[in-house]
Structure formats: C-alpha cells, structure tokens
Amino acid sequence: MTGEIFVFVDEEELFNLMKDLDCLYCRNPVTASKHHLKKRHLRFAIYYKDSGIGKFSIPCYCADGGHGRSHWHCPMCTKILQRTKDYKIHITNHGVEMTDKSTVELQPTTVLLETLQTDNEDRTAGNKSACQKCGIHFTTTSNLRRHERLQHGHDQQPMLCIDAKNAIYVTPKDLHGPRVPIHIRKSFALQILLCELEECWDFMKAQAQRGNPGKECRHLVRTNHARHYVPPPPLCVNSLEEMTDKHLLSKSEKQECQEMNSRACLEGVDCVYPIFWEEHELSERCIYFSVYTDLKDKWCQFGRTRVSFDTKSGNWKCLCEHKRNHCVHKYLSMWWLFQERPELLQNALDINTESVDVLEEVVLDAEDVVQMSPGGDDLC
Ligand SMILES: [Zn+2]
Ligand SMILES: [Zn+2]
Ligand SMILES: [Zn+2]
Ligand SMILES: [Zn+2]
Ligand SMILES: [Zn+2]
Ligand SMILES: [Zn+2]
C-alpha cells in the first residue's frame, strides 16, 4: 500500500480517488461506491487539524493489516497501527491536533453539498480538472489546488520578514505539525544566503559541489512569496512597571529586560517580534517570538533566538537552554504578551489550576503515553 493516500481534506477527494474502481482500502475486491466508502470507512474517520487545516484519516482493511483487520496507515511516516487509540496518539506525536467532528473546519457532508451547489460556477474544463501527478479528477479548481498542495507538497508555507535592515525572515521549519519558526537570511544586495538549520547547510554545500552554487534550501526558496516587514507594537515601559508591580518580574529581571530592549532599539531592530503566521490567528496552540540576543552563537546565529509559549500548558521555552531558569528572552516575550494579549497569559494561568484532572487522564493512558511520547504533552 505504499504510495497510497491516507489523509484527506474532504469527502469528494476520497470519492474521486477510486471512481468505479475497486476500493484501495479493502483486501477483498469491492467497488468503491459512495455507499461503501461511507459505510466501511468514513463512519470511523478520525478528524484532526494539521497546521490549522482540517483533515481526516480513514481506517484501512488492506492485506497489510493481516486477515483484513482494520488498521491505520500513518500519512506522515510508514507506520501501520492496529488500534484506533494508538493511531490517535501516534499522529498527535507528529504534532497534529485532534478535533471534535463538530468543531472541524470542514464538515465533510456540508462540503459535499456546497460543492454540488457551486458546481456550475466553478466547474473546470476538460483536463484542467485532473491532477497532473496522480490523475484524480475534481469538480472544482479550488479543490484540485487544495489537493495538490496537501498531497503533493506544493509548499505554500508562510515567510515573514521580521528585520528588513539585516534581511532576516522567519518561516515554519516543517510542513506538518505545529508551525515552529526558524530564521533565515537572504539578501542579494548583501550577498547573503543563510538558513539556520544545519541540514540545510549540508544540502547547499553538497549542491555547490555538484555545480549548483546558490541552490536554496526548502526554506530559502519561500522568500519568493515573503510578506514584507510590518513593525509589531513596540514594548512600552509602562507595561513593564505594571508587571513588576504584580510581581510577575523581579526588579533585576525588569532591569535586564529594559537594557536588552534599549540595545535592540539602538541597533534599530525589534527586540521582540511576535510571530503570527496569519493575521489575527489565534487558533493555534503555540505562540512564537523571535527575540533579539545581542550576541551570535550556535543557538542564535543571526543574533535572534526563538521563544515559544504553549497557551494550554502555560509553558515557556527558549533556545538558550543553558540558562534554563533565568532567561531574559522569555521575560521579554512575556512583557510583549502581557502588554498586547494579556488574555492569553490569563488562559494559561486558569488552566494550570485544572491540571490535576489532566494528570489523572494521563495516568489512565500511562502505558501508551510513556511509549509514544517521552517528552510529555508539551507541543511547542
Ligand atoms: Zn473499502
Ligand atoms: Zn492498509
Ligand atoms: Zn507516523
Ligand atoms: Zn494528485
Ligand atoms: Zn533551510
Ligand atoms: Zn533565552
């Protein structure tokens, strides 16, 4: 079953995949009619969000499962899991977020109805409706484009300029899971072409040796559709005072924050750049910040580090791990959040008090959790 599709964004995609053919997901030959797909597969579908996009997986009954037993193929690695519960844990570890069917962005049945209604307006002509890569037909161009993007990795990941002066951008590291940002630098004027990831260095070096100097890694190429620099709301001293009054920061921590902020200001860059991939996007669980460090090191090659805040667990993380308990970058990000989105900080505080219930659930599932997720349930 390698090369098959195990993740879908709407029912139409699944129906069109095997029109009038035998079901690819059943061991014994059976026509993949809508009735069959609904009864045997869609009824048990698992819904989740991957990078904010609603998707679903269906159970498979192919020979890989042995004796036609139902099983799940992971769409992100090659693993096959027998138990639905294990499959859910497995893909959660890839970074997707389980969604209740009622809250999923794409309600398969509604999507189907909408497709039928808009059919006449958006119908594509002839060959244009078929995917060039796998031949699946679609009734609308938008569905075809979505299929191309999701199934064949047409990379439309965002790229934001966060420092125009030094030509620094941020972009998600991976195509799947939480959109963890990495920094890149690209400027033709300055003759700079750099990606933070070591694997990308290796890739570009190897390409240069093969006679392709200037070949860009998968992140650098995204600058073609980069969003221009937009200044974020600047940090204000008043909000920092308020934080110290509320004992969220000590006097020395406050001092440190102010010093770092002034050094960034002197350099003419933003001390804290909050990374919201899309405008007003708050549906994602983790919030990321690019923070000025005033030094260059392995963990901050371009003079900036990454701080993440998990809005569910309330945990903060910074790339400068060696200063675990004392990290000015976290305080600076907290300052920005306290000033601009205080409700998000409050959410985390509220949830922390309920964590006893969560712990109990974890204990019940301890076997699986320990096996599948050694890092606990932190997402960022
Ligand atoms: Zn089937
Ligand atoms: Zn299978
Ligand atoms: Zn997997
Ligand atoms: Zn295709
Ligand atoms: Zn790269
Ligand atoms: Zn730090």
Automatic annotation (TrEMBL):
InterPro entries assigned: HMGXB3 (IPR039598), Znf_C2H2_type (IPR013087)
Residue ranges constituting the C2H2-type domain according to the UniProt record: 129-157
Keywords carried by this UniProt record: Metal-binding, Zinc, Zinc-finger
Gene3D superfamilies given in the database record: Classic Zinc Finger (3.30.160.60)
Name recorded for this polypeptide: C2H2-type domain-containing protein
GO MF annotation list: zinc ion binding
Domain of life per record: Eukaryota
Upper taxonomic lineage: Eukaryota, Metazoa, Chordata, Craniata, Vertebrata
